[in-house]
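Encode chain A's predicted structure.
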Amino acid sequence: MNQERSNEAFAKQIVEKVLAIELEFADTHGGVDYLSPDGTVALEVTAVTDGDKQGAREALRKSVKKGTPSAPLQGCWIVFLSETTPESKTLVQRVQPAVVELELAGETFFDDRRAGIHVIQKGELSHIYRPLLEAGVERAVYTPHEVRPEDPRHVHRLWVTAGSGGSATGSDEALDRLLDALSTKLDNPRKLAATGAAERHLFVWVNDDTSFTIARPLSHENPSWAGGHEWGLPSTEPLLNPAITHLGVMHARSRRGWLWDGTSWRELREH
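Encoded structure for chain A:
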């Protein structure tokens, strides 16, 4: 007999609150996750993650835990990596010395495309750019930090994140990528269709191991520089499998999400 999982129960609570309905756990032997008492509403809960990205993130955590080289930084840096950067276990140890050299050369920004051209042309900073390119660094940005009296022990460091965000153009593209990922999960519409319910809801969890192109609009508040519309609610109707009438998406960390109710999009929040 299948047991109710915590992410399923939380999704159920969100849907119940937003739509003012009652749902009961129904997946005792491999069926849909939840049904309303009268059988008119069905809910299936799933997740979209990237196994390669998860492995890279785990390796990166180990690298951070090992500590950084003795080479001191003049300020903090935000380093953006490819989502599936290889050899991440030693990444911080390899990248920080190169970043120190960037500082000494008076550089405050690194971009892999510009750096790649510079290296091909055998520019004077090629010896600095090359190890960063080999490590899978897509961008690096210097962030000055003023040492304040209340923070005398501050140590300049690298803040490393997977996914530069450069590949995502907005919420509409994120939705398209999400639907592509869901198209391979054929069991979800199959379970919903088998219920015969009038409303058939699919709730999708994304997280920090989901492709950044999909998760970015929901992983943080809308960027202040984005003008609002690109990173708000999707502007297009989702092309759903006919077995799915409603679609909910939420980021497991930020608890920000979207809900398609069959006619329009609305925002989802934990509270």
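The two ends are 32 Å apart (CA to CA).
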